[in-house]
């Protein structure tokens, strides 16, 4: 018996899919993402020193510029995810993003080599500094922009592209495999960031800017090469048009039919669904009531937020001790003076920041990713980075306001370049208070909001039993 053309095409596609994707593709994707993070995060810690030294900016202005750059890098993830899911596809998006980051880092590296791309150095007393020209400023901003565009494509699409490779409905262990993939993905990102703020920063401090900025550029060359080498092995899902069209249609239809009383009798004759839809019966996910239940990802987010408060408070305490030691040692007017204080004072707060981020970030990404359809996977991952972008903008505004308010009337700013005369500890206490407000807001949202994915919800285990009873009562 011969197969008809449709059956032959189905069998051919199935055969092709079984040969592509799978675990063999994951190392290429993880190495690409790790190199991108290692390169971009390796630039951040010392970049303010480079800008203030060679472009003659004040510390506060340079901090605002870098914060805005970080916000742009994260905010563009929404645009990158939209273009990826709707038009380019994730493979092309990651490839374009990686190449864009590479070009941006090459431009930044060239600014350290070609003297004409930056102002002449200041005189011995910092009184005869040459102003940065518009062309020189355009070069550095161009490099930032290219790196931001690259991050906007790579960061939301890379994790979703890796998940595409492991998608296999016939595998009973697919969910466990996905969980393992997310853990390994973020573990590699964490290791990359640690290496960035240690090894890369060490290279910049000891071998100069030409080598220090050249190494990230070489890492991006490696990222591009590794990702493209794995190209024949990837599953390359095609984009399916604008993902917002369906969302808009659902919102309009829901508003127009808001007064209709629908009985959930699960009769297939009463409901429409697309042939490829995974839903086999109506859902109550959008029925505007309920009690929070469960633990899981939302609990991890809450614990991460709480640990962030503790870490911020420890930062304030440590800075108070450091400042007092500096003043007692006579370094009040010498911010470069070395005091007798071990760097291990910073270990507890940094460790707490690390644990907090591991719990909050991974939990948040998994939570969002699990609630979105596969066609919007990149967009789901981009929501987290969009949140970082908003946070960076708020942080930039906060720094600007605090610097302006605390320096009024001739007073020394909390964020003065001479940190021994400023009050960075007060700023840390302010951020601790804001983190506390954020945590309380999170608890309020958890208390009055319920999500409906696999029975997971908020921080209140006592509500789990009540929610289960309600579901049984309503026949859910």
Please explain how this structure is put together:
This protein is mostly helical. The chain is 68% helix and 0% strand. It is built from 12 helices and no strands. It is globular.
**What general form does the structure show?**
globular
Mean pLDDT: 78
Oligomer: single chain
Query: What's the alpha carbon Rg, rounded to whole Å?
Result: 26 Å
Tags for this entry?
mainly alpha; globular
Write the layout of secondary structure elements.
Layout: H1 5-19, H2 26-54, H3 59-88, H4 90-113, H5 134-166, H6 174-229, H7 243-256, H8 296-328, H9 347-371, H10 377-406, H11 424-448, H12 462-473
Provide a compact summary of the structure.
With 476 residues, the protein is an all-alpha fold. The protein is built from twelve helices and no strands. Helix content is 68%, strand content 0%.
